[in-house]
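Hi D.,

Good news: the full-assembly prediction came through. Inputs first.
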Amino acid sequence: MKRDIGRRLLMKIIGQEYFTCRDASTNSFNQDLRRLSEEYCFGEIWSRPGLPPSTRSLLCIGMLAALGKTSELRLHVGGALNNGCSVDEIKEILLQATIYCGLPTGVEATRIAEEVLKERGITFDAVAVPQGA
Amino acid sequence: MKRDIGRRLLMKIIGQEYFTCRDASTNSFNQDLRRLSEEYCFGEIWSRPGLPPSTRSLLCIGMLAALGKTSELRLHVGGALNNGCSVDEIKEILLQATIYCGLPTGVEATRIAEEVLKERGITFDAVAVPQGA
Amino acid sequence: MKRDIGRRLLMKIIGQEYFTCRDASTNSFNQDLRRLSEEYCFGEIWSRPGLPPSTRSLLCIGMLAALGKTSELRLHVGGALNNGCSVDEIKEILLQATIYCGLPTGVEATRIAEEVLKERGITFDAVAVPQGA
Amino acid sequence: MKRDIGRRLLMKIIGQEYFTCRDASTNSFNQDLRRLSEEYCFGEIWSRPGLPPSTRSLLCIGMLAALGKTSELRLHVGGALNNGCSVDEIKEILLQATIYCGLPTGVEATRIAEEVLKERGITFDAVAVPQGA
Amino acid sequence: MKRDIGRRLLMKIIGQEYFTCRDASTNSFNQDLRRLSEEYCFGEIWSRPGLPPSTRSLLCIGMLAALGKTSELRLHVGGALNNGCSVDEIKEILLQATIYCGLPTGVEATRIAEEVLKERGITFDAVAVPQGA
Amino acid sequence: MKRDIGRRLLMKIIGQEYFTCRDASTNSFNQDLRRLSEEYCFGEIWSRPGLPPSTRSLLCIGMLAALGKTSELRLHVGGALNNGCSVDEIKEILLQATIYCGLPTGVEATRIAEEVLKERGITFDAVAVPQGA
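Then the structure:
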């Protein structure tokens, strides 16, 4: 039961298409890890009512930036949007990560987030930069 | 102006007493770091309206746990309470950090948080553990 | 059932005395983390037959040194002895960690291991160092 | 002499083909690093009798996963097979790394290991996942 | 004013071409991070007279290697040359990073540095390796 | 011979008193690590002429701050002074580390450096902070 709850929460985060691919590629080497992820990460923790999924998504972005786990960060930027976070909130997390984890972390995470958002069709206005430098 | 805003936000987080001590110990070696902290971390980032201070506090706890910065984590657990977070929310962040950063991180951060909360006079009911192990 | 198996494996590693203290200090703040640790870390993973506990202990020492998790490392040096590892094997792990994680990591982990071993009553012969330096 | 011993151990790990390429690309910029690696890492440490190469390989996988060093991890998954480790043992290390270093680490390391194993012609049976999620 | 100083220092490090691209891609998502970088990193810190830019570049290479921030490291290897560091000095930093951060870090950073230097048209003499291994 | 050179460089860094204690505490558990440190870290790398010891000291401070290795950082702040670095240069490294590694790193490293400098009898003038915050 915990695993089913976990699988539904995971699907909300990574999207139907990616979820189906993931299931199709589950094999004897990776099955235990995937089952643990579904039971333990999503079934046990993400389902807890103490924090809503949107806050859990923002927290994931911050921690994954801190840890430098860029593949997972990519997934969770999309997951944050799926869980109802705004682009603005994502931007704020990354600015705070820049101060707490250092500028290289902030630059790397912002670049990844921007790629994910553009893949989602979100566009950003160009901004003029100061003259004379 | 940015520095004054920052100093007020910092004082809310670390408390009046610690803030006064900090000012008394500012000297020619650490003054630039402290000014930068007040201007950039608190004056620039913490003051931004895109996330409320309570969310910024929860995010700090997550990132500091991920980074293993235990002294700062200690400060921010208290800061989270000052910014209106509940004990339950703090507990939830630490459980999520356990999954994403590993059990040793979760154990270390939970121990630190428990110490801070007890220093604040918060008590926790003892819990019986399973028999027969 | 998984939790009971986990609790027995954990007790073997941390010792009867420490295990009893841990149970006595379980409370409403830390109980979920502790239950997860017993179920998932020890009940699910440590119990798997694919690697013997002695190898899992050596692996823990290596990973905890790499992660810089000194409190957990302290526990697992003792746990390695409880699981049948020799002092020599522990020394070898730390030398390999020195190369792969850097000299500061190796120095810190070796100091911690030496403290734990001495607390266990294990003594080491003094060694003369080269003259003339 | 230590360097020759080291070079032979390194060749066993990375394979004859990769070893020859490496020698061909040694130049005035990277020669000191490569010599140190051959003398210090392989000649001094890997040759020590206190742990067999198979155990050293499993330890490397664990530490490299913990450190997030994905290129080196890729090399050492192949090296573990060359040193007599089984696919099952590699899988077990990665599951333990998941608990101790966090799920993102476990996912990243398992993906890399799976790629290496497939490049070696090792196949894995597909596994059906639970219905209804 | 601080921002202009910062932009000039940044341009010296990343080069005119990359700097112009960067300005062209500044948008509503990344503008705050970029402004902070120009003001805080370059305008405030890099401009300080206590260390010359060449020393700051060598320090960046060491810290970015330690942090595993490979994209930023790539930028700063080029920046070091722009700030007057020699290829030899860059090589020395990487050898010291190998000892202090571990061999995988040294190998990864050296590979990145070699790529950047070759893109700059710097060539290295091939070196013969010991026979008989 | 490399080991003797290394031991002399190490003694310059950690001081005569600490060096003598270290020799007195060398035993069968830690002797290999210490020998490796003397041969490879100091004998091979620190002795290389490509960077002067003062620059190597500044680099160590930056990397150890990045890695969070506080015990080693403590040693190398003193070592930097022994190798001719100024207090001002040490302060500059720590400010740059704050930007590149994050504010918690900068705060922790600055606190440690301040302790070491005070133990050395170096005093710092108190600095008045802005009124009204």
